[in-house]
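Re: the request from the purification team.
They wanted to know what the chain is likely to look like in 3D before they choose a buffer screen. I agreed to run a prediction and write the result into the notebook, where they can find it.
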Amino acid sequence: MATDIETDPQQEKAERIKNLQGHVEMLLALAERPALFDQGAWEAADADLRLFLKQEFERHHTDPEARPTNNWYRENVSRLSDGDLECDENALVSRGDENGAYVQTWAWVPGPECADCDKPMPDDKIKRCPECQELEDECQREMRA
């Protein structure tokens, strides 16, 4: 009877660290004894390390199996924001020691509007649209008269 063998996350992490140490040790050996290795060996070791680090980053931030609750955080962004925030299905999730996470989101930010009539404004330094500014200027002239 076949049984599923459950892997220990701590053991997996230890194996990944050992793998990383192997890559770093190879680069250090190349750096200490450049005469023993050619440029191709250096570039291959460097490329292997870069690939390993890229895969670890992607695994940590996007692989749902590596962090099973990351999808829960992504899916629940909307319950906090009343639709003001949007989240991609592969958004980065950063969790710390506390119960919660930072989730990469998109936020809609409206452009500048006229202070009086809410018309869109081309510049955030202008507070009133030309029509409202004309009314304000006219009121000022009448008050002075």
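For the purification team: The longest strand covers residues 93-95.
Please add any questions underneath this entry.
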